[in-house]
Fold:
Amino acid sequence: TYQQIIGYDTPEQSLKYGQQTVDRLFTLTNYVRYIGIALVALLIFIAMVFINNTIRLAILARRKEIAIMRLVGASNGFIRGPFLMEGALHALIGSLLAVGVLQVLRMYGIPKLQSALSFLSLDVSGNTYIMIYIVLVVAGLVIGLLGSAFAMRRYLKV
Structure:
């Protein structure tokens, strides 16, 4: 029979052909997923450190202005507001740059990849891209605001 010709004695062995390859592929994709999560966490930490240092430098550069604001009776929110806005602005600019790079990759990289890998469907709906862009901008704003808040709590004694 055909199974004996290709080296399988039973139909069950024929059905399990490639199971080890599929298992190895799933193991590899799990490793890639864990590495991706670790890299995202590392990048979030690095962004928080950069924003923290930027706000700390801004606080140190405006020491005299902050002291004058305190003397004339400015509220804590009035003193902290510009630093929160600065952190949010830095994060917003960074997230919009990321969205721009992703859009360029979507327009030029995906079609080339699709033509090279014609057997693999890379169709992603426009709504998915919009959701990714929104998540990037919102996550950037949250990271910027948190970085600013940590920096102010640590370096701005109000």
Q: What stands out?
A: Residues 19-61 form the longest helix (43 residues). The mean pLDDT is 84. The chain is about 85% helix and 0% strand.
